[in-house]
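General statements about sequence and structure are easier to judge against a single worked case. For one protein, we set the task of working out the structure tokens from the amino acid sequence alone. This step matters because it turns folding into a mapping between discrete strings. The amino acid sequence and the backbone structure tokens for this protein are reproduced below.
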Amino acid sequence: MHLFGRSREIRALSEAFADSTRGNGRLVIITGGPGSGKTQLMHEFLATLNSTDACVLTGTASWAEREQPMSLVGQLIRNAEAECAISHRAPSAVNSPAENRRSCAPGPHALPTPAAHEATETLLRLVPDGYPLVIGLDDAHMMDQASLQTVVHLLRRSRSRRVLVVCATSGHFGEIRSAAHTELLRQPHRRVRLGPLSEAGVGELLAAQAGRALPGHVRAAYHRATAGSPLLVHALLDDSTRFGPEIDRPVAGAAYRQAVLSLLHRGQGDQVRVARALAALGTLARTVPADELAGTTPAGTQEAVDILNSSGLLDGHAFRHPTAAAAVLEDMDADARAELHGRIADLLYRSGAPAVEVAPHVYAADVVPARWGADILRAAAEQALAADDVGRCTDYLGLVLRDCADEQERHALSVALARAEWRTNPAAAGPHLEPLREAALDGKLSMRDTATVLRYLLWRGDTELAAQAVSTLVDVQSPADAQIVAEVEFVRQWFYGVALPGRGASVTGLDPRPRQMRVHSGGLASRVAALVGGEATDESAAAVAQAVQGHQLDHLNLELVAMSLLAIAHADRPAVAAEACDELLESAVERRATTWQAVLGAIRAEIALLQGDMTTASQGALAALGNLAAPSWGVLIGLPLATAISAYTAMGSYAEAEQLLRHDVPEQMYRTVFGIQYLRARGHHHLATDRPFAALGDFETCGRLLREGNPSLQKGFPWRSDLALANLRIGKVRTARDWAEEQLRLPGSHSSRARAMALRLLAATCKPHRRASLLRESIDLLKACGDRYALSQAYADLSAAHYELGEYARARLVARQAAREAEACRIESPVDVHLLEDPARPETAESEGGPAILSDAECRVAGLAALGYTNREISARLHVTISTVEQHLTRVYRKLNVASRSELPSKMLEHRIPKLSDRWDCTSSSTG
């Protein structure tokens, strides 16, 4: 290890050597903290003497040999014998410890003993006459008493000799109190003090390793982590370059840990105990006194802290690098470490520290104090969950549960533990909740805990048992409990779509209608019920969106929020739902709530599907599936699977859809709306891959399941239109027409999308003239609900109808609109290529002069007229009088040189007049 930033110190030692060679005996004492490079400095200096005629002797003292007289001098004499090739027997003063002990004086201030005198003479005789003698003593403050007397006697005998003694010793108060250090300081000497490397010195060291100067932030990072300790800098370099020569930010690994422990164990017991106490205290080390924990006095603690700071381990009372603190704690025996954390927890509790500070040490001690431990852990668990630290919350609750003997308390702890784990992994909550099913049915749990168990039953598809549990709770609820039950029942019926009261599992006495909902969360449920079961308006959709965006996500209302978003989207406001869902998703990501991310991601993908954005829908559904393992999805896995399958089918990616259909799904899923969505997606895939009878079976199953479940949800699942499509594919036109008409006759309002689909299918069973009228109505509805994929299909159908009627120009006009919508959806165009080609244009003076200019109003009227709308229909759509429409058309005919209405489509194509201009589209879409 090469020295950096020590040129001044090397120069001072060289000057002392030069002075000694002139017959002036010298003593140089090198001081510095642990790891400051005292030993390395001495070795570097002694290496510079290789080219001289000096006789160099070295020795290292240690605490282990302090009771062995002449142990250090013995090293020097043996080195001298080897250096000078002397083979005679060394004096008995060195080799007889018993004799040394007998003759050793009681202290360093006494006259030299015969052993010290004899050892000194031996050292001087071993050096050839006229040669300089240089003695290097490392860790000199730890030398034994007899060796100290010999060194002091040598120094006194060498005032006029060519002798240089270099002693490396600690510069800290604890070691200064040693007799050796004190006596050495009494002798005439020169001091060389080693401080930590400066940031520039660290940069020089790093540059030598990298072969180039490194950026300032790298140099600063290494200096900040080590305080300039050469030992620690080299250790970090070893770890950081283990996988490549490039040096970037410091990486603390095995070498750094070893260096930390090396520095730690160089000190006395007090330093080790203080370091361990500070490491265990962590961030509290700055405010909690460590002397009680380390068993030292405040002064002793401060002394140890100063030494640890000078060694580069601490910055004040905190470890400079977390790996250093971890290494110090891992060096302890496990039982001792746990006992230390237990004492810290007790100290913090007695001092009135908050639960979040006490609990980590209770957990690390792995023992729950009898009087206060459980309360502290529960309080800290609640705060950890509020801070979205699910792992810490479950750790604390698990420890309390392990040592809890009360049955009721164990039930409450199990539910709380499951509630926390649900956020990131619903499957992990199962083992805690499964044993509580009977307790929930018997009313042994609080209503909040019962609701958690019910949510678990619904999530895994046990809908009948969930209904049974609700029915047993109806007669024993307070107003607050009634709200919880009503909310759970609302989710059961509308989110999972299972039987209403009186159908399937009966829930006697519970009325889940909106008027039963109370308080703020009930307000959201009542708004959703009004949106789903009543007339959807901009105001009702906005009210739900506002309630959703102001609703705090927690363990009780995730399904309710998801239901709200779907209700908005299916009420022809997918853009509103998408905006609200994106905001909630962002919050879920920030809070690291995996389950929320998965469910809301699946909802967002479904919204994209309703908008006709198949790429976003498929990508979003797959991302949601990847957030949770299949067992954690429960019956909800049908939602992202159905979305992805539908999107891939629409894009023509049949192999990808087929792959998703191979996923295992729980049987219970088919008793919920998620199973119905899955069956519909599979049925449409069967139709796209020429398996109409398989599709027919899936669609018939959907109808049966909806009739047996919650019929009010049927407007969101137009299974009758699905049956109409399947019957069309197998040639049963009359049956298809019957199903489409039945869909249109459904009582109450239903979504524009469902009605548009039914109109499109009814059109497929009619003559071309009637077909065009029905398709135009379908197109209007699809524009309102924002489904651009279905809109492209409807335009394609309308283009085909015009083509069949011989209205080729109008067919081309509509085909281009279909192609534009398909392009917006990033799918293949649903119309033939020849319909998109430009017809031959006559070379006229007008065409050479450029296209005629129509105003926005004229363009809107002309576009609708070209699509076949009557003046009355145009008047109703644009909210103008029929007279205004006629005036606009008159000006259009004059500008485009149109003789009759039938020429309008071809003239618009010829002059490239915008059809259904973007400005009109924006105006129209604003109503959705």
Observations:
- DSSP finds 50 helices and seven strands in the chain.
- The mean pLDDT is 84.
- The longest strand covers residues 163-170.
